[in-house]
Amino acid sequence: xxxxxxxxxxxxxxxxxxxxxxxxxxxxxxxxxxxxxxxxxxxxxxxxxxxxxxxxxxxxxxxxxxxxxxxxxxxxxxxxxxxxxxxxxxxxxxxxxxxxxxxxxxxxxxxxxxxxxxxxxxxxxxxxxxxxxxxxxxxxxxxxxxxxxxxxxxxxxxxxxxxxxxxxxxxxxxxxxxxxxxxxxxxxxxxxxxxxxxxx
Length: 200
Hints:
Layout (H helix, E strand, L loop, with lengths): L18 E9 L5 H8 L5 E6 L18 E14 L2 E7 L10 H4 L3 E8 L8 H10 L3 E6 L9 H8 L7 E4 L4 H20 L4
Helix pairs in contact: 1-5
């Protein structure tokens, strides 16, 4: 008698890889991308930070972040296991303009994005917002209130960033794991809302 063939890997008892979701975290230089990845990742995040040297003088704009002494030169990488069947991979982009060419590679396969903005330097977030909008990639905006410092109202920030009304925007401290969780949940809700919206 012939041995029946399993109809799937699951039927055969073979472990299957969990589904992977890629989220890109972008923003200007020194807004908190590396910090956000580190605050929510379940593993020690992969970082490609290097110390700023005199060679960056006149190249990297340290306005408003003059205490910063390191910078991401490639990417930040973190992971969150949502369930045995779903893993979220976080990719933080480098913020300096000289490394923007890497964004085109990092965005491949991304389901959505988080743009981090600093109210002291909102202009540094324009490029990230334009990047996601031009590629039709859904995103949410995180206003990083450093040490709870924020001098603008949400409406003022939204107007300054020229955000579409449907783009979620949250204010908080990216050092706090709970805020990172809220951002990811807001992005999931936003993706679900978009997928449920009628086409046309």
